[in-house]
Structure prediction request, 333 residues.
Amino acid sequence: MDRIFSGMQPTRQLHLGNYLGALRNWVALQDRFESIFCIVDLHALTLPQDPAVLLSNTREVAAAYIAAGIDPERCVIFNQSAVAQHAELSWILSCHAPLGWLNRMTQFKDKAGKHRENAVLGLYAYPVLMAADILIYKATHVPVGEDQKQHLELARDIAGAFNRHYAVDYFPQPEPQILGEATRVMSLRDGTKKMSKSDESDYSRINLTDDADAIAQKIRKAKTDPEPLPDTLEALEKRPEADNLVTIYAALEGSGRQQALDRFAGQTFSTFKSALVDLSVARLGPITAEMRRLMSDPAEIDRILRRGADKAGDMAARHLGELKDIIGLLRLR
Ligand code: TYM
Prediction:
């Protein structure tokens, strides 16, 4: 059976980009795939984290998965550090990942910034750990937002390099699944920048923990231009902020951008924004409320993660055993 794996970092709160670009698609896919959803706490360590905040964010991301509709009875939900084989396979794969491939990764360049010499090794090796996350389960499909495409290509390359090196057909080539209308949600303050957890301005994003007032304020303050909404996609594409808001509207509604334009063409942003506030609150409000309810019982979240880690750990241990046999690492029994 086809198997999906995907994950999110427990760094700050999840936002609308995480929801529309990834989480919502996972919910739709869980019916058709064996599904493994991870909270990638080891990846979070590539940037400095406060231990107490990291712990609480890890549970909060688990709560967000479940509140958004991931069924913990059918899917495996766990935190990455609970299954040691991710880190073990990451080492093995790092021995098959040429530096030239890693040097091409744009996320490292963005995150390391100007002081590349001070960037930590983990940040550089980040995509190899990500490849290990996927490949340890021999996942066939990986639903992500557009920004993860390059990392997925690297995972495919590493899987191929491993298979060739040992002349085996062990790892499948994981297929990226970049789905829906909003594969790249942009900042509410700047339509040319991705909506991101790390943006200094909280007004740049809608967090899954925002209440109705915060959502309304952020959308009302969102940057726009003075023109009314256009009637064609071609005209929309030249206006990044307008395009972003229309895309968000269409994605939340489950329609398309053209359908949204058919409805709002010629109208002012103030009319359109009111409709967007109503739709956002209607769609996100129940998720936020359910997250809050789940967060009030952290022991229950931990039980779900424990169960998930046990299931994931069994599969990961089996696969790592097979890999050790392929590689010639002595398995003592
Ligand atoms: P992370 O935590 O940055 O983001 C989680 C998911 O949300 C998507 N996303 C977006 N989609 C649309 N618009 C946006 N503005 C936006 N921002 C984020 C991301 O594409 C992602 O799907 N490296 C990954 C985590 C990871 C992973 C994995 C993913 C680790 N191992 C294995 C898949 C498979 C990351 O940092 O995602």
